[in-house]
Amino acid sequence: YPALTIEVIYLKDGKPLMTSVNWPGQTGIHTGMRFNGWSVEINTRRTGHDLELNTKAAMAGGKLWKFHFRRVMERVPDFETAVKELWSANLASSMYIIMAGSGPYEGAVLSMDRGGVHERWSPSLIRLSKDKGIWRLLQTNDDLNGLPKDDRRPTEEKKLEGSVQSQVSPEWVFNEMHTSPLKHDFTIFTWVAVPATGFYRTIRPNESWEQAANQRTDSKLMRKTNRPVRQAARGAPPSWVLSVDVRAHLNTSVA
To answer: What are phi and psi of 79, to 5 degrees?
Structure first.
């Protein structure tokens, strides 16, 4: 898997529209960003009898999420509209959708149930909020309104108690994800994205932040789309949404 992990840039009218992390044969999107717009990533959510229930939901009209997310990202330019569309989607499987936008405090975690419903026991839509002092979100593979299923979420939350918002940068977030308890033996890749600037970087398990930067092809297209963070341009401190799937670190979007 790590050796087969690639970055893809999608063009529209000859200009970069979005980017995603892909594996051979993949045509939909599980981890991706629309430039100057928003990013999305999916975490596994187990609710029991998933294969059977997902099949029934798909036969009843539930959408296959990878293809649906690609179509939404191709069509929808802004974070707020994307959140509304994905939150109301009739999907064939349950999951966590982790999103970040190009504006200050644009970040959200959507705990999705299959079949286009939101069960009463499922977490509500959770968002970053300046007014409430919520500048970070952490999503692993369990519901945020329930007990953790492993030690990643409580251990990382304890670590983050000593962090402050002014520390946030793409490299800082990467370092959080690339160390225990979030990095583990099944990590396939780590992805950091900043929709506001078009910055993104995919890092394999054995790579450092600098090594990943040196490995990528320095094409004219990449230089145009992969700009560094410009915090001063928005006049707001960075916030972030971090998600860690059981199989891989799939998305960190600095909002």
So the answer is: -60, -50
Q: How many CB atoms lie within 10 A of CB 95?
A: 20
Q: What are phi and psi of 153, to 5 degrees?
A: -65, -50
Name the amino acid, one letter, at 197.
T
pLDDT, tens digit, 9 for 90 and up, residues 136-166: 999 999 999 999 999 999 999 999 999 999 9
Which residue is listed with tokens 């398990």?
205
**Positive or negative torsion for Cα 46, 47, 49, 53:** negative
Question: From CA 130, how far away is CA 194, in angstroms rounded?
Answer: 18
pTM of the predicted protein model: 0.89
Tell me, letter by letter, the H, E, C secondary structure of the chain. CHHHCEEEEEEECCEEEEEEEECCCCCCCCEEEECCCEEEEEEECCCCCHHHHHHHHHHCCCECHHHHHHHHHHHCCCHHHHHHHHHCCCECCCEEEEEEECCCCCEEEEEECHHHCCCCCCCCCEECECCCCECEEEECCCCCCCCCCCCHHHHHHHHHCCCCHHHCCHHHHHHHHCCCCCCCCCCCCEEEEECCCCEEEEECCCCCHHHHHHHCCCCHHHHHHCCCCCHHHHCCCCCEEEECCCCCCCEEEEC
Tens digits of residue pLDDT in 163-180: 999 999 999 999 998 888
pLDDT digit string (tens) for 8-25? 999 999 999 999 999 989
Q: For residue 252, how many other CB atoms are within 10 A of its CB?
A: 26
